[in-house]
Amino acid sequence: MDPVLIDVPERIETERLILRCPRPGDGPIVNDAERETRAELKPWMPWAHVEKSLDDSEAYCRRMQARYLLREDLVMFIFERDVMGREGRFLGGSGLHRIDWALRSFEIGYWRRSGCGGQGYITEAARALSRFAFDHLAARRVEIRTDDANSASWKVAERAGFTLEALLRGDSLTPAGEIRSTRVYARVRGSRSG
């Protein structure tokens, strides 16, 4: 089946969050959050090394919406959910990446804006995306890959119920060119963590 024919909801809600695919007009909120958070993200995210204009951020949002519709990359933005169930403060980004539709395998990625840490938002988003992948997309495998030195990120994977499968030693370079290792966490359909 052509993946573009797969029905993929564009919005996920949890008790505290709304996750949704990017839309035209999201550029300013994404740009603001990236500017605020750039210093924190630089050690882990190559894209944080490039300062983006508002037009760059808007173009990114539109490209990611197109890729979502084509089922190539399911980027989702994370918002606080207000008491009326509407989008509140923009908290960061996440989504299902490195998609293999034949295998039904996905990788969850995430980042959060400064000032939003320590409240469990990203763990809640990772759990919601994992459930979404298994329940709506018939996932067989969902991974989270993190830099071994990024303990905040791998602790999210552990709190979200993922199992550490491997430590890939010296398999990647940081944006600064340092050799690093990658932790691979997974949930697999049919296993206790899946």
Summarize the structure.
Keywords: Transferase. This protein is an alpha+beta fold. Helices cover 29% and strands 34% of the residues.
Do you know the CATH topology?
Aminopeptidase
Question: Helicity level, as a percent range?
Answer: 25-40%
**Could you report the average pLDDT, rounded to the nearest whole number?**
94
Second-tier CATH architecture: 3-Layer(aba) Sandwich
Query: How many alpha or pi helices?
Result: 4
Q: Please identify which CATH superfamily we are dealing with.
A: Gcn5-related N-acetyltransferase (GNAT)
Overall 3D geometry?
globular
Strand fraction equals: 25-35%
| SSE-based structural type | alpha+beta
What count of domains describes the coordinates?
1
What would you report as the Rg, rounded to the nearest angstrom?
16 Å
Residue ranges: pLDDT <50 for 5 or more in a row? none
Distance between the termini: 24 Å
Elements, N to C (H/E): EEHHEEEHEHEE
Supply the CATH class.
Answer: Alpha Beta
User: Count of DSSP E strands?
Assistant: 8
Can you put this structure into words, describing what you see?
This protein is of the alpha+beta class. It has a single domain (3-139), classed as Aminopeptidase. Helix content is 29%, strand content 34%. It is built from four helices and eight strands; from the N terminus they run E-E-H-H-E-E-E-H-E-H-E-E. The chain has helices at residues 27-41, 54-69, 121-136, 151-159; strands at residues 11-13, 17-20, 74-81, 87-100, 105-112, 141-147, 163-173, 179-188. An eight-stranded mixed sheet has the order 1-2-3-4-5-6-8-7, with helices on both faces. The longest helix has 16 residues, at 54-69. It is globular, with a radius of gyration of 16 Å. Residues 28-184 form the N-acetyltransferase domain. It comes from Piscinibacter aquaticus. One of its GO terms (molecular function) is protein-N-terminal-alanine acetyltransferase activity. Pfam families: Acetyltransf_3. Keywords: Transferase.
